[in-house]
Design goal:
Layout lengths: L1 E2 L10 E2 L23 E7 L6 E5 L5 E6 L5 E5 L8 E4 H8 L17 E9 L2 E4 L2 H9 L2 H11 L5 E18 L3 H15 L5 E5 L4 E23 L5 E8 L10
Parallel strand pairs: 1-6
Antiparallel strand pairs: 2-13, 3-12, 4-5, 4-10, 6-9, 7-8, 8-10, 9-10, 10-12, 11-12, 12-13
Length: about 250
């Protein structure tokens, strides 16, 4: 059964987490109005699923912390039909299409900060959802991991987030916006991505239409909630679920 994406209601919950290594990704400069409340991931991947918890340090670098084992329900959802457009920098777009296989400053002769706008349609998109009460139960069973992270890294300068929902797809179709001269520049830049990612192809280069065949379902959009730090009278530090990150044009991590 098809349904439309909706914004989850915030609930208070306690969580605890663990730490792996840092992860630095290309940032988007504008979040999409194609799905209000959702965020386009820096690149399609199989890792950014519901239950993923991470911190962002003062430099904007994402630090993986934990992956909570929570029940996930799946449903289909329409993305890109009669909806809004996405605006990103050229660097973010090329990084997304190239799956970070290209050096944006050395291999692509373009202004990575140039804005580009496009419509995006997902083939057979599927939403993976969690229930916040079930997340709460899972988080309460992992109390030692947040203590380990704080011991190793502290909390100064950090912000913490959890992915509660994510949308995946097998194929993405693009139609680029703007005047012909601007799109000629877009085409020239994207042509360089085609040399490193054979899954990206023009379906109609004259109309500036592009397809990205992911071959397998990969996560493309995610929904984030911010986690607030609370220090109890006993001195124990916990994280509690704050507001959903709706997207203000400022990326939450690089």
């Amino acid at each position: 059964m098809k349904r439309f994406v909706f914004v989850s209601t915030c609930l208070l919950l306690l969580i605890s987490l663990s730490c792996n290594g840092p992860q630095k990704l290309h940032a988007l400069t504008n979040y999409p109005d194609i799905l209000p409340g959702w965020h386009l991931l820096p690149n399609p991947n199989s890792n950014d699923k519901p239950g993923v918890v991470f911190g962002v340090d003062a430099k904007g670098v994402r630090q993986p912390m934990d992956i909570l084992e929570v029940p996930i329900t799946q449903s289909t959802v329409e993305v890109g039909k009669d909806s809004g457009k996405i605006s990103t920098t050229m660097g973010a777009l090329l990084g997304f299409l190239g799956t970070n296989k290209i050096n944006l400053t050395a291999d692509v002769n373009t202004s990575v900060n140039k804005q580009v706008t496009y419509a995006m349609h997902l083939t057979d998109p599927q939403e993976d959802q969690t229930q916040l009460l079930q997340i709460s139960d899972a988080l309460q069973r992992t109390k030692q991991s947040i203590a380990n992270f704080i011991t190793q890294n502290g909390i100064a300068g950090y912000k913490f987030y959890i992915i509660t929902d994510a949308i995946k797809s097998t194929k993405l179709d693009y139609t680029f916006d703007g005047d012909r001269n601007g799109n000629v520049e877009v085409k020239a830049d994207i042509d360089k991505v085609l040399t490193v990612n054979p899954n990206v192809k023009w379906t109609n280069s004259n109309a500036y239409q592009l397809a990205y065949d992911l071959k397998t379902p990969l996560y493309v959009f995610a929904k984030y909630f911010e986690l607030n730090v609370v220090t109890q009278a006993t001195g124990e530090t916990k994280l509690v679920l704050g507001n959903q990150v709706m997207g203000s044009g400022t990326p939450i991590y690089k």
